[in-house]
Amino acid sequence: MKVGITGGNGLIGLHLRALLHARGEDADVSLISREDFSDEKRLQAAVKDCDVVLHAAAATRGDDREIYETNIRLTNALIHALEKTGRKQHVILTSTVQIEKDTGYGKSKRENGEALVAWGARAGAPVSVLVIPNVFGEFAKPYHNTVVATFCDQLVKGEESRVAPDISVRLMHAQDVAERLRELMETKETGILPFPGGTDITVEDIYRLLSGFHTAYQSSIALPQTRSLFERRLFNMYRSALPLSFYPRPFAPRSDRRGDLFEMAQVSSPGQIFMSTTKPGQVRGNHWHMRKMERFALVRGEARMKVRKLFSNEAHTYELSGNRPAFVDTGTFSIHALENAGTDELVTAFWADEIFNPGDPDSFAEVV
Fold this sequence. Notes:
Order of helices and strands: EHEHHEHEHEEHEHEEHHEEEEEEEEEEEE
Radius of gyration: 23 Å
CATH class of the largest domain: Alpha Beta
CATH superfamily of the largest domain: NAD(P)-binding Rossmann-like Domain
Oligomer: single chain
Number of strands: 21
Structural class: alpha/beta
CATH architecture of the largest domain: 3-Layer(aba) Sandwich
Helix content: 25-40%
Strand order of the largest sheet: 2-1-3-4-5-8
Distance between the termini: 28 Å
């Protein structure tokens, strides 16, 4: 199945790509770019061989008129290109609960859904319009995708946040949206499809949770308690906003004539502690996680740890030593590897925020 994605570098597009990548189904995924939309022939060529076209590209910033006209233009161009191919591609539009509003964004999404459904009826092609609540998740851009990303960015930078009182939102993690999109590719369910579920929460409570995570995580080795999958995802998103230079974080050893003692972590959530030895020149890791967090702490030896965000070409390197006790926490959707860079055996202690499950390991092999 060949899948073309508009807006493939946006929040939902990236999470769908990550899901397909994890499942080994990304070999036939192509990104339909802004340049393709600027040239009629290029756009036709981009969609011609696709079995599925996910239309996630949309303007969300600017004045109402600009947003409306941009989104209508993009969808009209896509429909024209589809008509020219003469095929019956399955088209999935990511829509929004804001279609009930007469803002430029809401109105354009509503009309785009109607236009695509009408094209599908004319062409005899399946069209799925997925109506999504507010989406958050790793890869989200501050001041763009979601207030969650904006709060995370402001907390990390020490900036003041404006918290709107008495406003509630329904939040859905982007990976849940990606799972539903993947399901639609299989079932070809058509029509205007509301997305059930999500978490109803006030903007004040979002900020309260994120601020609590920030205070606890910045000030000690303690890991904040997360009481649900939703809170765990909020914490992971907060951590994704931290610069890579935030690590390594030094421990505060207690030393006496017997040697050193240091606390590795303070946790109130379930998890697993394990240790490894690594021979000189050998590498552990070269994988990434969708939900799992791991803490690396060197006990003895010299190590080089490399980290690269998924779909990025830039890797960051940490030089670690058992003589300088410190830890690095891995982020979700972040490929990581630990190499013994010394001449002696490397001893590393780990903490993970869930017990390893061979049936659902949440570990995807990829070289940094």
